Amino acid sequence: MQKLQLLQNQFNPTSDDIFFHIVQAPPDPIFGIANAYKADTSSTKIDLGVGAYRTDEEKPYVFEIIKKLEKEIVNDPTLNKEYLPIEGLADFNKGCQKLMFGQNSPLIASGQIVTAQCLGGTGALRVGFEFVKRHIPGDVYVSKPTWSNHNQVIERAGLNQFEYPYFEPKTKGFNCAGTIECLSQARMGSIVLLHVCAHNPTGVDPTEAEWLQIADVCKKRRLVPFFDCAYQGFASGCIEKDVFAVRKFAELGFQMIVAQSFSKNMGLYNERVGAVHIVTSNKDISARVLSNLKIVIRTICSNPPAIGARIAAKILTDEKNFNAWVEELKTVTGRIIKMRTLLKQELDNLKVPGNWDHITRQTGFFTFTGLTPEQCDLLTKQYHVYLLRSGRMSMAGITSKNVRYLAESIKAVVQNK
Amino acid sequence: MLCFKVIRNFSLWSSVPLGQLDPMSGVVAQYEADDFPQKVNLGVNTYRDNNGNPVVLESVTKALQIVREKKLDNEYPPIEGLQSFIEAAIKVGYGESYYAKNSKNIAGCQVLSGTGAVRLGFEFLNKFVPSGTKVFVPNPTKNIHPIIAKMAGLQSQEYRYFDPITRQVDFSGLSEDLYSAPNGSIVLLHACSHNPTGCDLELYQWKQILDLTKQKQILPFFDMTYQGFTSGDLEKDAQAIRLFTEAGVPIILGQSFDKNMGLSGQRTGCLSLVCSNEKEKQIVVSQLNLIARSLWSCPPVHGARIVETVLNNPEIFQLWLSELRIMAQRMKKMRVSFTKALKDIGSPHDWSYISKQFGMYSLTGIGPAQIKELVEKYHIYLLNNGGISIAGLNESNIKYVAKAFHEVTKHKII
């Protein structure tokens, strides 16, 4: 009987049922919550799970500038639906470089930045790590905690990963000393995954001085910085300030990788708009790097989808469109900041036990509330508030109408015996 | 604390060699840079009309109009993509009657066109088939097939497919090679419009492969990039799919809507696996999602929304069918005309194989020296494996191309 059961759990090529042995994979921690929220019929449900912006009416938001530009593109008879080059739309790539490294970055002029259009932030990370695996393989250091998909992407790319102690639960701040200590023990040539701003899930970012310390240890240990930038514009509200770390490291002469996403800051979630940048030491090496990057991309999707990149390119390469975008982005990020303030106020008014300063101190989409997994479960099951079990709450899902209910629910679970 | 500028006397990337790509590589760029008025691009990888222009299908334009009127948002789709697209794609791929009975058992996932289907499919198979299972790919096949297999962690091996002497399928070689493959091997099969040869299997040959599949518990992985684009008939082009699924063989199917809807730039495809029951299908979908999450998180929706509308709107669907027929018929006509033009000009070679083949491509056997001559003397661009894209031929250039081919090959053995 046992032997039969054993056989049933293995692939049996002579069996008619070739998939019999496969077990159900767990739902994705983030998409799974979105699905659970959708299925919930409660009238008081709140979606604080997935990092997707909502208006004060709890509606998804399509940027006005995006609507305008999409219409232009769709109605442009000179644009056919042909394949893009493997590395994507040239205008888009150029625009991405300028946004990330600065309009006048000497690295752009010198041809030291290799850029390829990718499938959102995930696509850029996967392409970047596949490239790492093939050409500069090493251990990857990821922040503890980090976005859950980071670990999966790195694993699928075939790399080992270790954690550096990023978040200090006692202060709910960045653990600089711990991070530096850990990275100074890393093997030379290891890769360090760094969130450029609005760290996901903690919302806690290093200060400029702390970034210099990180740069220092990377230099000493010859660590390769791999930046993930999914929230440019969402941290300080200033798109230049938000990429201080990338620009500083570039200025300091690092060769590095940057993954850039436009899912959130252009609201182009479903068209998969992103880019990977590899900074080299000269343009001859850039040519070789590009040719190999193209092989990685070719074997995932051949070439990237056009529409999202065309829209983004129109924003990034036209001053008027760019300014319109920046204005709209300020409105979006402003609302999130306002919700942080409102939630803190409500929690203070209700005299909810605990220190909630971190809600307004943290930046970007998310707050690492400090709620335990059990408290999060209760929040969901009893109060229909959906967030990650890590305590990560997406502030973009809070509205002026639901913030009071949210604060009351938090109070209830915190005080729950 | 001082922070020094990193001394750039070492390069992280110095040992990175120049990567090599496939036959398409460089051809388009060269062609574009050429200003010779009679230049011909026979390396084009999407359809061209009789004026040499890319085509935006009217059915696609109408479908896009409908999509835009819905004023949909830009939210993340599920990891597996748009359900309505997946269902519509599976329906057209497997046929209405099979779909009606078995849709609950078919695990589907929206992917980044044909490449995405192969990548996701191979990664899935690598995870769940016994280690050491090989993928058998036809010789020749799309350059990237064995490369994707390698990236996904699978070993690949070729089976004989194309006979360069007869320029037809080497069926006895194929049968021998598949028969001697280990039981349980994965076998990649081009459903129609074999790329790069244009040589397709006949129904009686598919039946023999079906027998072999059953005998050796082969896992058939169909790459169907050209459904409808081959003969103009969706059902005919999927005859292998119909045959295998009706016989109860669980297949894996990769579909692309790049060519048959002219949506190359939007990267719209579907990967599906036939499972034993609905529960198993859910399990397989969950595992596909796990893999897809780390490749692209979720697929782009623009193309999928268009495809779904074309397939589900009866009027637009009929319009699409008529446009498919036009495209397929034009390419068939060019094949026949080209063969005739070469005969009329007195070529000593037998080019009749071109008119017997299907779809976009044909392997001519023209060698590198002749390819170079065609470019330098006649400004005619081929794929660098000697392949030609029939879509690049039209009534204005066919005689010119025939003459050029004749000139470079008349004293040669090809």
Automatic annotation (TrEMBL), chain A:
It catalyses: L-aspartate + 2-oxoglutarate = oxaloacetate + L-glutamate. Belongs to the class-I pyridoxal-phosphate-dependent aminotransferase family. GO terms for biological process: amino acid metabolic process. Homodimer. Keywords: Aminotransferase, Pyridoxal phosphate, Transferase. Residues 44-410 form the Aminotransferase class I/classII large domain. GO terms for cellular component: mitochondrion. One of its GO terms (molecular function) is L-aspartate:2-oxoglutarate aminotransferase activity. Pfam families: Aminotran_1_2. Its EC number is 2.6.1.1. This is aspartate transaminase. The keyword Transferase applies. Its cofactor is pyridoxal 5'-phosphate. The keyword Ion transport does not apply.
Automatic annotation (TrEMBL), chain B:
Its cofactor is pyridoxal 5'-phosphate. Keywords: Aminotransferase, Pyridoxal phosphate, Transferase. The keyword Transcription does not apply. One of its GO terms (cellular component) is mitochondrion. InterPro entries: Aminotransferase_I/II_large (IPR004839), Asp_trans (IPR000796). GO terms for molecular function: L-aspartate:2-oxoglutarate aminotransferase activity; pyridoxal phosphate binding. One of its GO terms (biological process) is amino acid metabolic process. The keyword Hydrolase does not apply. Residues 38-405 form the Aminotransferase class I/classII large domain. Pfam families: Aminotran_1_2. NCBIfam families: PRK09257.1 (NF006719). Homodimer. This is Aminotransferase class I/classII large domain-containing protein. It comes from Paramecium pentaurelia.
